[in-house]
C-alpha cells in the first residue's frame, strides 16, 4: 500500500501533464493554421482559441512544476540515481519553456496590436515550435523511464555512454505517436464541446471556421477509432508477457492479483467503456454539425448536452491511456532496473495517503478550473474583448 500510494501520485500528475501538454501543443499549431489561412487575429474565433490555448499552456506549466515537486518529495533518492540522464533533459525543457514564456508567448497573448503582422505571425510560429520542443522533451523522459537505453546502472546511479540512444530509445516512437494522438483527441473534443456551447448559449457568435471545425471533428473521430488498435499495439510493446488490452481485461497481466495488476485491469475496463462512449458522441456530433451547420441553434437540447460530453470523454480516454502506460513499468521507477521501493520516502503511509488526496484535489481543481474558464471565454470573454482593459488574467 505504501508503494501504491507513491505511484498513484506520480501516475496521476504525469497523466494530467501529458493531457494538457498535448492540448497546448495542438492549440498552438491551430493558431498558426488560423494565421496561415488569413483568419484575422481580431476575429471572435481567433480570440476564443487564443484564450483556451493560454489556459491550457498555463495548466500544463502548473502541473509540470507540481509533478517535479511531488517526485522530489515522494522519491527523494531519484535525483542521485537518475540525475545524470533526467537532469540535462529537465534543464533543457525548463530553459526552452522559460525563454518562450518570457518572449514570444507574451507577444502572442498581449501584443496583438502592438507589433507588426509579420512579427506577430513569427511569434506564433516560434511559440508553437517551443511548445513542441518541450512536449518532445517530456516524451523522451517518459519513454526512457520505460526503456533505459544509452545509460548503464553502475555504483547506484545511471551513467551516460550515448546520448543519441537515450533520445532515440526503443519506446520513443511509441511515446511520440501517442503524444500526437492525445493532441488530436483533445483538440477535437474541445472543438466539438465549444460548438455545442455556442449553439446553446450564443449562437450569433462564430467561434470557429466552419470547414476547419468539421475537418478537425472528422480527424478526431478517425483518431478515436484508431485509439483502440493503437493502444493494443502499445500495450503489447510495454507489458510483458505480450497480452494487450484483451489480456488486461481478463486480468492475465498479474494472475496473483497484486494492487498494480488490479489497477491495470480496472483501468483497461474503464477505458473500453469510455472509448465506446466517446466514439458514439463524436459520431452524433459530426452528423449534427453537418446537418445544422448554418443554424446550430436548431439542434435539440439533449443532442447539444450529449455533444458537450465530448469535452469530458476525450480527456478521460487520454488520461486512461497514459495511466496504462505508467502502470506498464510495474513497481519500477525505471523499468526493469530501479524499483520504486529503493527510492520512496520512508514515512508513514498515512502521509502518502494525504499526498494522494492532495494530488487528486489539485489536479481536479486544475481540470475543472480550466473547463470553467474556457466556458467563460466563450460565453463572456469574446463579447467583452473590445472593452478597454479586458485581458486574460
Give a verbal description of the structure:
The protein is mostly helical and 393 residues long. It is built from 13 helices and four strands. It has helices at 2-36, 44-74, 78-102, 104-110, 117-146, 163-167, 172-201, 210-238, 244-249, 259-291, 301-308, 310-327, 349-381, and strands at 151-154, 157-160, 332-334, 338-339. The strands form two sheets. A two-stranded antiparallel ribbon has the order 1-2. β1 (151-154) and β2 form a beta hairpin. The chain starts with a helix and ends in a 12-residue tail after the last helix. Residues 380-393 have low confidence and may be disordered.
SSE blueprint and pairings:
Layout: H1 2-36, H2 44-74, H3 78-102, H4 104-110, H5 117-146, E1 151-154, E2 157-160, H6 163-167, H7 172-201, H8 210-238, H9 244-249, H10 259-291, H11 301-308, H12 310-327, E3 332-334, E4 338-339, H13 349-381
Helix pairs in contact: 1-2, 1-5, 1-7, 1-12, 1-13, 2-13, 3-5, 4-5, 5-7, 7-8, 7-11, 7-12, 8-10, 8-12, 10-11, 10-12
Arithmetic mean pLDDT:
78
How is the main sheet built? 2 strands, antiparallel
Question: By helix and strand content, what is the structural category?
Answer: mainly alpha
Beta content: under 5%
* Span of the ends, CA to CA: 41 Å
The amount of helix comes to: over 70%
